[in-house]
Specification:
By secondary structure, this protein is α/β, with parallel strands linked by helices. It has seven helices and ten strands. It has a seven-stranded parallel sheet with strand order 1-10-9-6-2-3-5. Helix 7 links the parallel strand 9 and strand 10. Helix 1 crosses helix 2 and helix 2 packs parallel to helix 3. It is globular and about 50 Å long. The chain binds 2-amino-2-deoxy-6-O-phosphono-alpha-D-glucopyranose. The site of 2-amino-2-deoxy-6-O-phosphono-alpha-D-glucopyranose has 15 residues, from strand 6 and helix 5.
């Protein structure tokens, strides 16, 4: 069964809908592990969730946050690390203690061991309850770059030129972007009990169109979600092929 598709008016409506989806999930299971994407798209969602937390409408303090991806080889405390971004955008605003994160350690001397430790920690926490994902311009989720099979484990990968150029805005120039990253594996993502994939804006329309037309295909890693029993694609009008904007 293909993914459920929900189309909302604009980025604000997307943030509201995604925050409501995540908040409902937390109320149902306050101790679950959430795989939380960085990137621009879910930032409004975290901000809306933080509003709900401030108003006492949801308590996220018992949730565990699993990192979705991380660059390899940054120095400790580099603000551009994805754990730093996760702290600023997710943990602090939602009132989740740092110790409740399952980290992908891109500074580890043994990256394979760091990936195994991550998977063991996810399993120990009962697996992923909800994966909140963004969609890369080449169809990646996390940094599962094409080609990524459905059983791809958590691992170190070489970033594709497309991902390097789309992330260059965070680094000053293409040359400054790290060449390698760790990513939660496609298998870990697909084992999540629920998945919410968010895409917003006209620059996502081409990849959303490819995704909607594609059967599960390692060359478009997000398309594996069509085979997931509870995956939702939430897009705004601007990202939806064939919409009027
Ligand atoms: C990045 C990250 C992903 C992110 C995706 C989309 O390269 N590795 O975790 O979800 O691309 O990012 P954005 O939401 O900024 O479009």
């Amino acid at each position: 069964m293909p993914m459920e598709v929900r189309v909302v008016r604009d980025a604000t409506a997307l943030a509201d809908a995604a925050a409501a989806f995540v908040a409902d999930g937390i109320r149902e299971d306050p101790d679950q592990t959430i795989l939380a994407a960085t990137g621009e798209t879910p930032m409004g969602t975290y901000a809306r969730l933080a509003d709900l937390v401030r108003r006492g409408e949801v308590d996220a303090s018992r949730v565990r946050i699993a990192q979705l991806d991380e660059y390899v080889g940054l120095s400790a405390g580099d603000r551009r690390s994805l754990i730093g971004w996760t702290r600023r955008a997710v943990l602090e605003p939602l009132g989740i203690e740092d110790e409740r994160t399952i980290r992908l350690d891109g500074q580890a001397a043994d990256l394979d061991a760091a990936c195994r430790a991550y998977e063991a920690a996810v399993a120990e926490g009962g697996g992923i309850g909800l994966a909140l994902l963004g969609l890369g311009p080449n169809g990646h989720v996390g940094f599962n770059e094409p080609p990524s099979p459905a059983d791809a484990p958590t691992r170190a990968i070489a970033l594709t030129p497309e991902s390097i150029s789309s992330n260059a805005r965070y680094w000053g120039s293409v040359d400054d972007v790290p060449r390698r990253a760790l990513t939660a594996g496609m298998a870990t993502i697909l084992a999540a009990r629920r998945v919410l994939l968010v895409a917003s804006g006209p620059h996502k329309r081409t990849i959303v169109s490819r995704l909607l037309d594609s059967p599960p295909d390692p060359w478009l890693p997000a398309s594996h979600l069509h085979a997931h029993p509870a995956a939702t694609l939430l897009v705004d009008d601007a990202a939806m092929p064939g919409s009027r904007n």
